[in-house]
Amino acid sequence: MNPVFLTIDNRRTQVARGTTVLEAAEGLGIRIPTMCHVKGLEPATSCFVCAVQIEGRRTLTPACGMPASDGMVVRTDTEDVRRARKIALELLLSDHAGECVAPCAARCPADLDIPGFVYEIAAGSVRQSMEVINRRLALPGSLGRICPRLCEHGCRRCEHDQGLAIGALHRYAADVDGGGKPYVPAKAPPTGKSVAIAGAGPAGLSAAFYLLQKGHDCTLFDAAKAAGGMLRYGIPAYRLPKDALDAEIALISQLGARWRMDERWGRDFSLASLRRDHDAVFLATGAQQAQGLQCEGEELALPGIEFLEQVAKDHSPRLGSSVLVIGGGNTAMDCARSAIRLGGCSVKVLYRRTRNEMPCLMEEVEGAEAEGVEFDFLVSPVRLESTDGRRILLTCRRMKPGEPDASGRRIPVPVEGSDFSLECSTVIAATGQSVERTLAEREGLRVTTWGIAADERTLATNIPGVFAGGDAVLGADLAVRAVAAGRIAAASIHQYLSGEPVVGEPSQWGIAMQPVDELERAEIFRAIEKAARIRMPEIGHTQRLTSFAEIEKGLTEEDARREALRCISCGCRKADCCELRGLATEYQVDPYRFAGERRRFSQDNSHPEIIYEPGKCILCGVCVRIAGEAGEPFGLSIVGRGFEVAVAAPFGLPLAEGLRYTAVQCAEACPSGALALRTARACDLRCGAAVAAGPDLVRLV
Ligand SMILES: Cc1cc2nc3c(=O)[nH]c(=O)nc-3n(C[C@H](O)[C@H](O)[C@H](O)COP(=O)(O)OP(=O)(O)OC[C@H]3O[C@@H](n4cnc5c(N)ncnc54)[C@H](O)[C@@H]3O)c2cc1C
Ligand code: SF4
Ligand code: SF4
Ligand code: SF4
């Protein structure tokens, strides 16, 4: 038969008659995306994602069903084509009932694969769990102790009983992994490039952790004598013991980090000298400046971070018999609870807003109260005076909640004529920290209100080859965000050193399934018994008050596995290989553009090999055609009408009857997560473990 000649994207080609435009493009190595086409099966032309422009045609044409013809001129990637594909994808997603990423993971600033690492703990594979954790998170043992655990507030189990103890679980993995021989990630061969990191706090340590794995040489410069930043000199040992931090820093040494401690930027070295001696620089010097009380006599107060540093260095100052701590954040709680431990004094915290508006963890407040710390809310300092050179008279004013600010918190307003005085031996000012920006400006760096100016995605500063992250950029913030910044900076610096465009980490598109309604909740938890979250064992009250021993003792293996088995493995089974998600990322799709009423989440768990979630089905018919072609006795068909249309086995038969022989093939070919293989997840494990362990464990019926 005569061949046909056509042109695709300005390239001429010859194909056999009957060849489709999709196949002809493929022959030229030109990729036309498609969701519904399966090689060897009749084209369905249903998804319209393979739309192309054919010269002489007013409308776009699906390439999978269009035979090539002589003289045809095809364009596969014009602006119109891209727009049409984007719209087609947005329509496919307009009523999608799925979530690519588990709601807990979506809240973790470090994007930790939470169901992934929790599953490994449930399976008893601590080493594998650490491998999963370390892909996204350095210092998991330290963070497991101090992170405010934003993830746990997003945990779906909060809607059923209690959120999973996620922080405690990654602390457990880090603490017990290897029994003294912890997991050290593999290193790429040396690249010959070197990176200077100024600041060895969580941000700098995390950057080193990932850069060393890429084969770059890393030298960390720090003004302090030991690495760890605020984790060492701010957060007290009863929350984060220094040997736990040391063990994680030792891993970074093992990866090959070089340390230049007791060297200060601005005194012992300059940015210019770092740039001269190294191929790239990461600035992670944190927020070190204590904010004053901004009132008369403020110099009489002891800055909170100075007090905590002295305690950490075993040089605790004399506090006298009565201590007033001013502030309501982590630093204030750490000061108050440290002062109580030093003994011999009463401690009262004064905060200008209400208890519920305190930015620290509520468990910190409860812990402090249990240890005898008193609180007075809606109080602000007005003046400090020295009475006899040893005691301080603090004048305060009562406040009342006023109008909400931009963050929704009510601005405290002074109550006229409400001044009162308190006498004490020490006032500790714990009202926050800020970034010292003068040095950065002097070195030619641009700055913002909070710190060094850096691009949000890449953390690049205005000086080529210089990156910045953590508190130094954000102002006083959270350790987990500093650790995430270190990882992102490492990705950008690696790109910079490899001569690639500096774009930061690839951003992952995702759809979420919020809110989940009552019926969906019932479906999700249909077979899940209620089970309380595991309680972390703690040291006794007397020991707390008389030492800086760690309060939380950590989980036992049994408790950790039991807790991990509570995880119901949310997120999508196909998150890493879903074509719909891949294309939505490529075409920067807005999943909510055409969103109306979405389908309800449901799950068919009845098939022994696969799981079917109809809310994710895009009705491409791939499975229907595979089953039909293979001669399944019943197969699948598209049933129902309008909004209720769905793929199902005919005559109301169970899925296992429809797909007797081709279930795995169908799941592998399904372009979304609608049909997915039953991979090992915590829920599958729970099923088996429940049978083995008897009636105590949470059961999946
Ligand atoms: C008392 C306190 C309690 C906290 N509690 C919590 C908590 O419970 N949970 C939480 O998530 N976060 C908490 N935080 C916040 C958290 O500690 C910080 O967000 C985090 O440490 C920031 O990391 P970083 O690496 O950016 O900076 P830092 O930890 O501040 O580290 C910066 C490093 O740079 C060094 N450095 C500074 N200036 C120079 C210079 N000129 N030259 C050389 N080196 C320099 C410092 O010595 C330090 O080692 C707390 C902070 C404080 C102060
Ligand atoms: S149950 Fe597991 S996967 Fe689901 S939100 Fe909670 S921790 Fe995450
Ligand atoms: S780092 Fe914090 S937010 Fe992320 S998983 Fe751990 S506890 Fe949760
Ligand atoms: S089917 Fe694809 S797009 Fe839908 S939730 Fe799963 S991974 Fe995300």
Please tell me about this protein's structure.
The protein folds into 5 domains: 89 residues, Ubiquitin-like (UB roll), CATH 3.10.20.740; 131 residues, Fumarate Reductase Iron-sulfur Protein, Chain B, domain 2 (Orthogonal Bundle), CATH 1.10.1060; 158 residues, 3-Layer(bba) Sandwich (FAD/NAD(P)-binding domain); 139 residues, FAD/NAD(P)-binding domain; 82 residues, 2-Layer Sandwich (Alpha-Beta Plaits), CATH 3.30.70.20. Strands 2-1-5-3-4 form a 5-stranded mixed sheet, sandwiched between helices. It has a 5-stranded parallel sheet with strand order 8-7-6-9-21, with helices on both faces. Strands 11-19-12-13-14 form a 5-stranded parallel sheet. The termini are far apart. With 701 residues, it is of the alpha/beta class. It is built from 26 helices and 25 strands. Helix 13 crosses helix 14. Helix 15 links the parallel strand 13 and strand 14. It is elongated and about 105 Å long. The longest helix has 19 residues. The protein binds flavin-adenine dinucleotide and iron/sulfur cluster (3 copies). One iron/sulfur cluster (SF4) binds next to helix 7 and helix 8. One iron/sulfur cluster binds next to helix 7 and helix 8.
